[in-house]
Amino acid sequence: MNDQKRKVLLEEIEKIRHSKVIVYFSYTPLDDGILVPLYQELNKIGKTQKIDLFLHSYGGAVDTPYKVVMLIREFCEEFSVIVPFSAKSAASMIVLGADEVVMGPISELGPIDPLVKHPLYKDFWIPVQALRCCFEYIEELIENNSNTEVSEIIVNSVLNKLDPWLIGDYEKALKASRQYAESLLSKYMLKNDKEKVKAVTQNLTNGYFSHGYPIGRAEAKEMGICVTEATGELWELIWELYLVYQSMFSGENACNFSLSTIG
């Protein structure tokens, strides 16, 4: 039942959007594991004028979004992202490589501070900005604490747990996220308004304290992102398709991610 309904909804969205739709729906971190199945789906479609990526993801690896955008653009002239609910962090980076992002009243983008795997805890991902916040906290502690011995004990206990190689790697991830954001915006979304590129990049990489901050369509548009508001029948179809995929992912046997077209 769900599969048949999914196909009907995809067909209706494609008719309205005059596009080919690829769905990436996941609750696990985005990484290079998407690339081979994505290439296979794109090969099925072949070269086409317009591709819409129906995207639900909470983010992941810093390098993967750029690869996803470059791969999709090998197969189309126009590329858009449809966000039914959440496209956060690395998923928001994919949006920057599109010509537009289609958003509804509940759709959210997010800051693009990258996620990295915790060095000790398996399958635990942390935002790199958390390390920056740790250092800022230590600086504030030293400045505001008159008892230097207590400050020294606290600072040393924290620093002794930090691997300088990891710190350097995390700093590289932050710089890479800014570099990718500027590159994608300059080449695609803001290619005709390059004066906004640095401001949008700065906002998305350093403008928010919460990794999960919800950037809705109005705020995204104010920031300078090219937003198309989904309304009426189009939004109803997008939301219904989201609910179909959400139901597919409920239960113990849900897969890690779904990457699919109508076929």
From TrEMBL:
It holds the Pfam family SDH_protease. InterPro entries: ClpP/crotonase-like_dom_sf, Pept_S49_ser-pept_pro. GO terms for cellular component: membrane. It comes from the Bacteria. This is Peptidase. It comes from Dehalobacter restrictus.
